[in-house]
Amino acid sequence: MTQPILNQASNYDAKNSYTFTFTYLGAEHTTTNTLSIREDGSGTKPVYEKDQVSLDKNHILPATTLNNGTAYLAKVRVKLKDGYSEWSPEIKFTCYTTPRILFDTIDQHQFIYTNDVLMSAIYTQAQNEPVTSYQYTLYDQRHVALVKYPIRKPERNSPTRFSERVSNIKKGKLYYIGLKVVTEHGIIYEQLQEFTAQYITPSVSGIIQPTMNKDDGQIVVDLFLKQLLGTSARAYIPKRKNDNADNYTYWKDDYVFVPKENPLIYTKLAMAKASDWIGKFWVMNVQNGLFLDFSPAEDRGQHIKFYKHDDYITCEKEFGQIKSRTRSNVIKDLKLRPFYMFVYVKEYRVEIKIVPDQTFKDDDWNEELSREELSQYGEITKETQQMIDAAEAKINAARQRLQQIHDEHWQQYITKVEQAISDARARILGQNELRDRVMEIDDQYWDYFENTEMINYWKELAKAERESEAKYEIYRTEYEQRINDTLSEIKSGAMTLDDGRLKLTQYSLVYSFILREVIDFNDTKLTLDGLQELYNDYLQKYK
């Protein structure tokens, strides 16, 4: 009788299932095998011994059958026509808990703040399984390996902390850093962590300064290297529970709306204290008044405040009773249009220059167009919130009226059924008559519920929603016009279908902050006819 051979099993985590494979070269076909597992030791009894049917030569051990930190012996046999084969020789394996790797260089928001970072990670494992080698790999956003760093051995004085210098990280690009470890008993484990680099300048940059020597007819070229050591600008949101990006509204995935009541604050910029610095800011749709404030920590010390006016910017600094005010150049009818603001501080003296951004898409120095851009602002103002509250009140009132009507008919239904039961007890109705009577009452009620009450319910709600959204009509008309204009551009060939669908999706996203319902253009399979059909259905609904 041919004996099966159980292939060597790798050490694995007992919380997971595991597939044991074996080799059997016997002439008789078999589909059933028995796997027997016992703890490593003399005379131990099996902790698992079961038959399993499989067309392949394997046996799947369910998760949590064994315990981590324990060594086991396993053997297998196959079922033949007249009995079982002999047991295979036993193999030894051990169950280990899956290691954990913590990348402590990457913060909780998955950011790093320089383009040259010493990536560091801490390794832990429940059974203290030592690592014999490790290797870092840098992946792009599609998990394609960009750089495979050398295989290294842990240092003796820090056997659970592994480091690698990662350079040339591009700002704003999504990466994954992977760390693969190999342990003493053959565990191979890799963990990936995503991150994005956010920094103001590269960690090392150069400045070339030519100086002319008139006396000797020479030009002296000085090269200065500037290095950032990791101190970086970090933002936080003081009036929210966390600093997550979803505390703000975004437009076109490029612009963030920062309302006055929910400011975004950067710390450790050192601008309020520094005597010399340069800043460049891009701004759009800023109302008149204070819009930028550089202040020391906890508001202690001097502020540098920037105020927006119709045609210019002013900067104010105070020291005791003395107030210093600087004005920028004047740009006629600047108002809400996008512009660049350049700030140059030399020995604490502030100079400001503003330049309109005429390259901004859809901005052609048309004030009305800027107002349209402002109308897309997603912040829910107090006035808008009051409109929404009034709408909700109307809808809730409609629901309450409908609930009262429903309760009245339900009570009539209960009364009729109870009366039929009373008639049966008084022997006015027989058993079959009671059954027929209850079925008749039941059919009447459900016919009313499905064909009258439910139809009226949705009609009343739709009516209440239309009434509550009467104040939104100007926004809906504006939204519908933008959709129609975009569809016309697609039809004429002035815009591709993909670009048009993207623009339609962006419009729906912006107006979803104002309107109760917008059109969903997210389906990439939609043709021009499909987009037009969605638009026509929307027009018909709000006709």
UniProtKB/TrEMBL annotation:
Residues 381-408 form a coiled coil. InterPro entries: Ig-like_fold. The keyword Coiled coil applies. Keywords: Coiled coil. It comes from the Bacteria. This is Uncharacterized protein. The lineage of its organism: Bacteria, Bacillati, Bacillota, Bacilli, Lactobacillales.
